[in-house]
Amino acid sequence: MVFHDEVDQESSTELTLASCSQQFGDASFEAVDVEEPRKPIAHFDRSEVKLGKQIGEGYFSKVYEINGFQLDHHGNDHYYSPEEQELRQAYHQQVADANGSGRFVLKHLKPRLLQAGRNDFENAVVDLVAEATFLQQLQHPNILSLKGLARGGTDAFRGGTYESYFLITERLSETLAQRIHRWRKQLQKGGTDKNDGSNKTTSTQRLGAKCHYALQIAQALRYLHHHQLIFRDVKTDNIGFAQDDPDKIQLFDFGLCRKLPESNQLDDVFRMSGGVGTRRYCAVEVCRHQPYNAKADTYSWGIVFWELLTLQKPFADFTKEDHYKFVCELGGTPNLSRHSNVIPPSIQTMLRHCWARNVSKRWTMAQVCDSLQDIIHTDDDLQYPRAAEPRQDRLALQQHRQSSFVWRGTRRRSKVTVAA
Ligand SMILES: Nc1ncnc2c1ncn2[C@@H]1O[C@H](COP(=O)(O)OP(=O)(O)OP(=O)(O)O)[C@@H](O)[C@H]1O
Ligand SMILES: [Mg+2]
Prior knowledge:
Residues 49-376 form the Protein kinase domain. By secondary structure, the protein is an alpha+beta fold. It has helices at residues 11-23, 82-93, 112-116, 118-137, 176-188, 202-205, 207-226, 284-287, 295-310, 320-329, 345-354, 365-378, 391-402, and strands spanning 42-44, 49-57, 61-69, 104-109, 146-150, 167-170, 172-175, 229-230, 239-242, 249-251, 258-259, 407-408.
């Protein structure tokens, strides 16, 4: 067994890896009832994937650019159907785009999880397997595409390392958190968008783009909810932009996504793990460990939209205790009236519906989509695209891609078992 970095070579560790492959076979998550046929994916042995620089990390995993595939033809071709062999070959040939930038990324668990103990590691494995299982079945223009998986599925953990099981996905150009951060910096420097000859601030002019992004996120969530899935980790770190289209949203990081129990009633709530996700985006009932349903995602979507509109972190200086007191006990929400220069009244009303404490009064993502579409269509200022992104924006994006900065996610969570 090969271990990297600081991982201990204790026998208990080996047990953990082996038990993961036994306990969390790929069949442990229910199938999602999608109409479309599954998109084909390719399987690779870890030794066939050449990694480049690390481009991101979350609480549980690290994400690397893929520099190349060294396909192993030594007697292993029987593993693959002719179609899969073709796909593996195609990825090998298309590994970089015309600018030499990697098209694919690989995500695997962090080694420190093994040291943290059996439970942490096994929970993280559950999340990664859930992510692979759901991504493989879902097909939506605003959901990141799964391209490949470790050969042998979770069996790859057997006698392997923390990184033997992995996911390969398309590479994103940047996350929404990164774009917001970039826009905020530009605004602080007094950036204005002279593209249409007006002297409005960049922030105001971008309202159309922001609504366009928020609508795409809402449509991805509406699709998940339609298939009885709850995402549970809607935040700007888990939303990205497609590499080939700087305005196309891609929802990713499906580790906390779960299938909801069957129910005919829209407002039924279910007993699932509380405190799941990222606190500042979390619905009140999730923070309070109370039963919840898909509308917990609506609440988080509202927080993300507020962050996008104001370019400010929600509950920025709040401690865990401050947040609990203000949001869970006093019913506080991010401030709307103070930001009326960047949040039109129609959107303020919509956000209030998203943050309703009474879950049966809170809007569904279908209602959110309808309302936002109406708002966009009836307000000339919100039409998008109105003008191409300013040149300075494109240059900044290029610089960001070339930098060696590693973006670190912040999710903390408790256990993730669904106890419906
Ligand atoms: N396909 C991708 N293209 C570019 N960057 C990515 C991609 N996937 C992930 N990243 C980067 O890596 C970070 C961590 O990835 P991800 O959110 O999937 O990991 P995680 O460990 O599940 O995170 P969390 O802390 O939310 O639990 C992302 O926030 C993002 O910055
Ligand atoms: Mg994440």
